[in-house]
Structure formats: C-alpha cells, structure tokens
Amino acid sequence: EPRLELTPEALAALITRWTAESGVRSLERSLAQICRWAALRLQGVDVQGGNGAERDAQREAVLASSGPDASGRIVVSAEHLSCILGVELFEPDIAERLTIGVAMGLSVSSVGGQLLFIEATKTVGSGKLTITGQLGKVMAESVETALSLLRSRFVRTDSRGTQASVSSEGLFDILMSRRDSSGGTGGSSVRVNSGEDRDPFKGEDIHVHFPAGGIPKDGPSAGVAVLLALASLVLNRPMRSDTAVTGEVTLRGHVLPVGGIRDKVLAAIRGGVRHVLLPLANKRQVLEDIPESSLVGIQVHYMKHVDDALDWAFERESRLGDEEVEALASQGGKALGGGASAAQVWSQKLASGTSLVLPLTSRL
C-alpha cells in the first residue's frame, strides 16, 4: 500500500508554481524532495525549517494535517507544498492586470513558455522612440514596424499626392479602417472628420519596455502584442485582460506564423489566461501538437490581420471563432472576424458626409 499520496490539487500546484520548463526535470526534483521529506517524517525525524522557533511552529501546524495517519500514510495537499518546498517560484502572471499601454504577449525561453508583458508609455517630446529590455535586433525592429503600421492608419496620402493627417476624433473607427497601409490612392474613398490635423504621437516621445530586463530577448513574435500596447495608448483604454497574443506583424498589417506555439499556449493556460490569439498559419501546430484535453478552459482564436486582434482586444461586436476561421480560410484567406461590422461602420461614415476625403484600398 502506498505510504505517500499527493492530491490532484497539490500536483497541479506543483506543476504550475514550482516548475516552468516544458520537460519534467524540475518536476522530478521537486517530487524527490517531497519523497525525502515524507521518508524523514515517517521515521519521526523532526525536519526544522531553520527560520526560528515561531516560524517552525507555524510550519508544523500546517503540516499536522498531512499525517502520518493511523495506517502510516502521508497525504500532501496544495497547502503543504510551501512548507516542504519553500516559497513558490512562479506565481500566475494573470495577477498583473492589464492597464492602458500594456499588452500580454507570449514568449519561449530555455525553461519553456511564459507570459510576456509589454509596456508602452508616452511623454512630451519630439517623436523619439526608446526601446528597453535587452532586446535583440529582430525584436527591436518588430517594435519599429508596429509603430509605423499604427501611424500609417492616421497619416495618409491624398489625391494630390501630399500627406494629410486625420484628427484624434473617432480614433477607434479610423484605427479599424482596414486600409492598405501602403498609402496608395486606389480603392474607395472614406470621409472622416477634419479638425486639428495631427499624428497620434506628434509632440510625444514613446517608450516601449519589455520587463525582466536582465534576460536577453529576440525574435519577431511580439509584433502584434506591441501594436496592441501602442493602440491602447492611442485609444486611452486597456485591452482585454483575459487575452494573450503572439504573432509577427508586417507593415501591411498581415500576421505571420511564429514558433514555439505549444509552449506558448501551455504558458497561457498556466497563467490563467482565458483566450489566446494566434496566427491562422499556426492552426495546424495547435491541432497536432496540443492535446484537446489540455485546451479545456482556454479558447484559441486565429488571426490573419492585425484588425482581427484589434477587434478582439478592444471588444468590438465581432469575435474570432473557429467557424469564421474555417469559412474564411475556404474563401481564399479574407480578413477574419469583424469584416461585416467594419463595412457597416464605413458605410455610415460615407452616408454622413464629412470634410476630409482619404483614399484607401479596402480589405473587407
């Protein structure tokens, strides 16, 4: 008969709060430490924590319920783990709620996937961009790409070939215009309110920071998350705090596939995230590499363009879903989720009539 039992809650807490790697080495070491503690306890050896008599008394009071019982069996529950293994090493990152200018990305390191919070802020200045967090060249370039894409939604080229900036009124509708970010003059024309013409970041310096500055970071997969953090600054509203995102972004707003999908999704699950946005091109990796049982409690949504992420992150009427993904993918890869609602928005704008006409190539 087994002399040591770990409750399911204890095992889940052990995996999520004392280990972080995608393998099992850290888990094996933690289990071995629990077994050694149980063996000493069964032999009646008093294992002191070395933190003083009062702390040791509190620790023993918690461990008293673990046994051994009359049959000599020890049962370890989640509340006992901190007394056996010490302070938990990894706290659920979802506790850090998102505020304006913060987006939740996903990354992969040598110990597995993890949540990556991206922070953006602005101060009075001259348009300077500062990027910190010990980033590699590729990751720094992805920040510049996201900023250029965001600015391209507000500064267009008119029919005379000169640039015209739109006002800050109706920022969300302008941001969701689904224009061709190349600034060409083809396609239909959309009227927007005129006013004080300005770049959304004119006269302001922008600082984008990736926390855990002591850890080197590189790769293009944070592009969409950076765009959402910057969009949050422009809109002055936080993105959904239950959503994490990964994906490379181009100057045209297309979302490209990235690596480490399995580890990233599992990190989102461990962090208590309810929704994760992934590139549509990565759907195959989700279906093949992640057991369906592991996806209980989290919804995976797919995006082909940054507008899909903006729709979801700032809670537009449309929602990304598997049915929309399948239907649109079969039609040759049109924009996912939110196309109809965007068309309605712009048809209303055209009907109302305003003073500044900006050309665009529609993606609806």
TrEMBL record:
<dbReference type="InterPro" id="IPR054594">
    <property type="entry name" value="Lon_lid"/>
</dbReference>
<protein>
    <recommendedName>
        <fullName>Lon proteolytic domain-containing protein</fullName>
    </recommendedName>
</protein>
<dbReference type="Pfam" id="PF22667">
    <property type="entry name" value="Lon_lid"/>
</dbReference>
<dbReference type="InterPro" id="IPR008268">
    <property type="entry name" value="Peptidase_S16_AS"/>
</dbReference>
<dbReference type="GO" id="GO:0004176">
    <property type="term" value="F:ATP-dependent peptidase activity"/>
</dbReference>
<dbReference type="GO" id="GO:0030163">
    <property type="term" value="P:protein catabolic process"/>
</dbReference>
<dbReference type="InterPro" id="IPR008269">
    <property type="entry name" value="Lon_proteolytic"/>
</dbReference>
<keyword id="KW-0645">Protease</keyword>
<comment type="similarity">
    <text>Belongs to the peptidase S16 family.</text>
</comment>
<keyword id="KW-0378">Hydrolase</keyword>
<keyword id="KW-0067">ATP-binding</keyword>
<dbReference type="InterPro" id="IPR020568">
    <property type="entry name" value="Ribosomal_Su5_D2-typ_SF"/>
</dbReference>
<dbReference type="GO" id="GO:0005524">
    <property type="term" value="F:ATP binding"/>
</dbReference>
<feature type="active site">
    <location>
        <position position="264"/>
    </location>
</feature>
<feature type="domain" description="Lon proteolytic">
    <location>
        <begin position="97"/>
        <end position="316"/>
    </location>
</feature>
<dbReference type="InterPro" id="IPR027065">
    <property type="entry name" value="Lon_Prtase"/>
</dbReference>
<dbReference type="GO" id="GO:0004252">
    <property type="term" value="F:serine-type endopeptidase activity"/>
</dbReference>
<dbReference type="Pfam" id="PF05362">
    <property type="entry name" value="Lon_C"/>
</dbReference>
<keyword id="KW-0547">Nucleotide-binding</keyword>
<feature type="region of interest" description="Disordered">
    <location>
        <begin position="177"/>
        <end position="198"/>
    </location>
</feature>
<feature type="active site">
    <location>
        <position position="221"/>
    </location>
</feature>
<dbReference type="InterPro" id="IPR014721">
    <property type="entry name" value="Ribsml_uS5_D2-typ_fold_subgr"/>
</dbReference>
<dbReference type="GO" id="GO:0006508">
    <property type="term" value="P:proteolysis"/>
</dbReference>
<dbReference type="InterPro" id="IPR027417">
    <property type="entry name" value="P-loop_NTPase"/>
</dbReference>
<keyword id="KW-0720">Serine protease</keyword>
